Heterokaryon incompatibility protein-domain-containing protein (Microdochium trichocladiopsis), 642 residues
Amino acid sequence: MPRCSACSSGVRMPGEGPVRRWPSFNDLESSAASGCDVCTLCRQYLSNWIQRKALCDTLGDVRLYAYDDHFSLECPSLQGALNLPVEDIDKSRQNKPVSPSGHGVLETPSAWLQRCLTSHDVCDDTISWMQRVEGEAASNLPRRLIDLMNIDSVVIIDCADWLANDLASPADLRDYCTLSYRWGQTTHDYVLKTPFDVLLEMPLASMPQTFKDAFAVVRALGIRFLWIDALCIVQPTAGDDGDWLAEGPRMGAVYQNSVLTIAATCALHAHEGFLAQTGASVFAAEPCTTTRVVKEEDGTQKTKDVLMKTSTPDFFQCVSNSALNERGWVMQERALSKRVVHFTEHGIFWECGGLKAHNIYGGLGQQVDQGRCRHKESMISVARSKRTRHLCPVEWFHFVKQYSYAKFTNPQDRLMALSSVARAVQPVIGAEYLAGLWANDLIRGLEWHCFKPEPKPRTYAAPTWSWASVGSGIEFTALCWHTFYDKVVEVVGTDVRPSPGTDRYGEISTGKLKLRGTLDHRKFPETAPEEYDRHLKIYWDEMQCESPAHSGWRDYTVLPICGHSATGMTLGYDTMFGAIILEPIGDTKTNARGVLESITREYRRIGWVEYDCPDARMHSHLQRTEYFSLWKEKDPTEVIII
């Protein structure tokens, strides 16, 4: 490919300052369109990481830096920089990228599925440990499925009736796929509205494009049956939600037992479809040759040709960080599925216990480095490997942290949409499930705080001590301090009651937590930012009023629960103390300090505070350790958090 004059004269390594600068992304795009191979390659890297609209709206220049062993691309839309690797030409074996369009969109998932079914023992083994929903036998089937034998219409069958009438065997009906998609805000005239016997036939023309695309993918796989929630569960209407209450809790098992989940990742709503958009944002580029100056042992300099490698779309950006996977219900579907094929604007991604791959290189694609995604989607990755038999509560914290940022139309669904995952991992964790936390690590489970607090949800979702009670994303202190840990409270008892018609994994009507510890009183600014000063971090569970009437300092009741040390097996100088900020409820009285206390010892949680220097005079290891001991040695008080 030709090269523009600026790239021809400046792009070589290493270099001082930027070796190439574009005044804006539009200038870079224009130069790439003219045929410059370096500009085209840089355009590809940016398009694989940032949406084009965001790039076009970006103010500021794009810069390319050259170092001894790589190039680096920077622009205002990026947090940090993109590294462009190079390698010696004689070692390069990179294939020419091809656009994943046309017939290949349907062929690629079939090839991946056959590879997984024939060579991935870990994927066959996944369901053996991922315990099915209580009361669900491995042979249990979905209540209804879509039969794709008829090309001209959509046939929905009742599985029990088909078995009773010898129209299919259990083995036939277990061979089905599932669809994961976004409903969108458009009208839903295509949904199942009433129960039926044996089968129900609906016109194909009435189906949204996403469903039609899913039909095409499943047929190309050679599979007869498909499950879609809108067509296989009678959708709730005013005063009639019986089928939803019965089938909704079983959705996790439906995805868990399916052969493959098809994720319409690039479709914003059901009517948009996904096949035509798959690969639409793939920006083809060729590897670029450039020169590198190498210093020899004798001090002389030698120039050699190297290859600037093309970019592979990032799995986390294209899949995990997509609009589809921001939905809470979809996260459950993905976490429980044995295999998922993601149709994205950057091509098709495959995800199972043995492989993460992308098809831009043709054939079965290149394997994506699972290690790069590990910290970002911890339990999902762990859940697809044999290591999941050793799942611990910390892995649950990782998953819940990511899940807490998911979006919900109904905030009270935060626990319901997590219920099937909780049921599945309970036998592995081996503890009682308590409103999104586990009894065997409950104290550390209380160490959460809101990243960006939002207004209090209008409807009750969970007790205030649970992360599910807030409508914003949360962080766990336990994930930040991988160090020595000591607790200063004791769990006396719990009383978590599910809503009528559900169980302890679903919606919660009330939840009480009784703790024994030492209540303390601390003065905080009412509208403190996330980090008030170097030693004090205050996190409110709800958005605080910032009116002049609420701008001063006031006394709060706090319950210290833990200490973390980064220095070793003792709580020394480098120590963080954590406490829950409480607000009394019910009848109250004023104590000697003028702080309201609950007569019944009942409180609601309103925030979390961390401080690494509880008293400005405490600088020594001994003083800090003694202060921590005071909390443990004072006469404890039992409090109930609701």
Summary: The chain has a mean pLDDT of 81. DSSP finds 20 helices and 31 strands in the chain.
